[in-house]
């Protein structure tokens, strides 16, 4: 074994033949040190490729001994080297974790996937603001130009059944409050045109619960008085039926109040058959949402 003398007497260089096992260990240590050194400068993708190359080189089989130049070190320096390599690997892992960023596509997917964490919007209704009033209109109902009542300023109809509709009427009044009309039942008698007029006035026999000479009837199912924004509102639920049994009758919900010398009435209705198939929630929501400014 041939030695070369260096300026530092404590260190000597020597050339030796290493066994295949010792060469593998030395290559492993050098690759770890290279990876630790490059961790501060490489992106996560570069680190991954470097690690892959290291893994492939680590198991290269050598057919004959190779001469390498080594530097002898004292035992405590070997311990420090081991600690340094461990520290380098720790830094490598930390750098990879910090350097990795979530791509915009992954972030967007995460937000879209969190459907249960977002509040759901009510898409069944659309807010409508008119002159002095506002109301929630079923989203699948369309505006109609048909004028059915005096003072009508708004009309919406169900796209599939015109029997289900919403009307808003505004007429002048000398009343200061809706309560000046009397009770809800007395008020309804003064605006009974909202329930429709009897078109046939001939003689008829009493049949199916109808009086003689009557082909239509109206039953008040419920009345209510509520204070909204300091103003009293009348709410009435009426079921009208005709002798021909059309739709099995009509459920009509009426909301009324007085503001600024005007009588505001909102009437929403649906046929009895559709009422019990889900139309009731649209009619009830529309009628109870009506309010004046």
TrEMBL record:
Main location (coarse class): plastid
Domain PsbP C-terminal stretches: 124-292
Keyword Chloroplast: yes
Domain of life according to the entry: Eukaryota
An annotated GO BP: photosynthesis
Subcellular compartments: Plastid, Chloroplast thylakoid membrane
GO cellular component, one term: photosystem II
Keywords from the named record: Chloroplast, Phosphoprotein, Photosynthesis, Photosystem II, Plastid, Thylakoid, Transit peptide
Role this protein plays: May be involved in the regulation of photosystem II.
Similarity annotation: Belongs to the PsbP family.
UniProt-recorded name of the protein: Oxygen-evolving enhancer protein 2, chloroplastic
Species annotation: Eruca vesicaria subsp. sativa
């Amino acid at each position: 074994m041939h030695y070369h003398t260096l300026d530092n007497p404590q260190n000597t260089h020597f050339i030796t033949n290493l066994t295949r096992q010792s060469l593998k260990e030395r290559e492993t240590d050098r690759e770890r040190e290279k990876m630790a050194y490059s961790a501060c400068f490489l992106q996560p993708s570069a680190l991954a490729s470097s690690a892959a190359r290291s893994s492939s080189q680590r198991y290269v089989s050598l057919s004959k001994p190779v001469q390498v130049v080594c530097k002898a070190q004292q035992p405590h320096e070997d311990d420090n080297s081991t600690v340094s390599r461990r520290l380098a690997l720790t830094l490598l892992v930390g750098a990879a974790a910090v350097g990795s960023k979530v791509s915009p596509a992954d972030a967007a997917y995460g937000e879209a996937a969190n459907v249960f964490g977002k509040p759901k919007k009510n898409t069944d209704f659309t807010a409508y603001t008119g002159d002095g009033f506002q109301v929630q209109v079923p989203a699948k109902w369309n505006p109609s130009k048909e004028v059915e009542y005096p003072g009508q300023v708004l009309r919406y109809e169900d796209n599939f059944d015109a029997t289900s509709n919403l009307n808003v009427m505004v007429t002048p009044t000398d009343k200061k409050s809706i309560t000046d009309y009397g009770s809800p039942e007395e008020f309804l008698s003064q605006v009974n045109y909202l329930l429709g007029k009897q078109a046939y006035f001939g003689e008829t026999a009493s049949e199916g619960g109808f009086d003689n000479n009557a082909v239509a009837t109206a039953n008040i199912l419920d009345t209510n008085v509520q204070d909204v924004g300091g103003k009293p509102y009348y709410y009435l639920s009426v079921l009208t039926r005709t002798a021909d049994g059309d739709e099995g009758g009509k459920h009509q919900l009426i909301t009324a109040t007085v503001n600024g010398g005007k009588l505001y009435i909102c009437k929403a209705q649906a046929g009895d058959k559709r009422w019990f198939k889900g139309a009731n929630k649209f009619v009830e929501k529309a009628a109870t949402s009506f309010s004046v400014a």
